[in-house]
Amino acid sequence: xxxxxxxxxxxxxxxxxxxxxxxxxxxxxxxxxxxxxxxxxxxxxxxxxxxxxxxxxxxxxxxxxxxxxxxxxxxxxxxxxxxxxxxxxxxxxxxxxxxxxxxxxxxxxxxxxxxxxxxxxxxxxxxxxxxxxxxxxxxxxxxxxxxxxxxxxxxxxxxxxxxxxxxxx
Length: 169
Ligand code: FE
Ligand code: FE
Ligand code: ZN
Known about the structure:
Helix content: over 70%
Bound molecules: fe (iii) ion, zinc ion
Number of strands: 0
């Protein structure tokens, strides 16, 4: 949500729209950021997981456009200050020097913060859509939520198996 924009909330649909606009901006930023993360990662498994999530994320943008369309609205993003900040922190990790395996672990940590933010946002948006009886929107948002959770679990798996174990040797 933009810090300097004042939003008007009269109905739960107004709230739903602000949530969707925030997610739309966030997802577009993630599409921009993920290729840099892939480039900065060393582990093949991590690169592959980030690349796969890039494909999924492009689809998250499309699903949100479908949600906007279902509301009879144009897709519009409202600056997500939180995602800007999370991705900026991720970029600090990309610029870090040192052991590539430790850096991979740092990239996973940054990526998981992003996933958790999304999981929270989509959970809320899905619940609001259900409350508003926007069934198509609810199932689109649930589909994305499921993929965010899977991406998060995959990152945990990589962190626990490969990256962190080798880095602590
Ligand atoms: Fe996403
Ligand atoms: Fe936000
Ligand atoms: Zn994601």
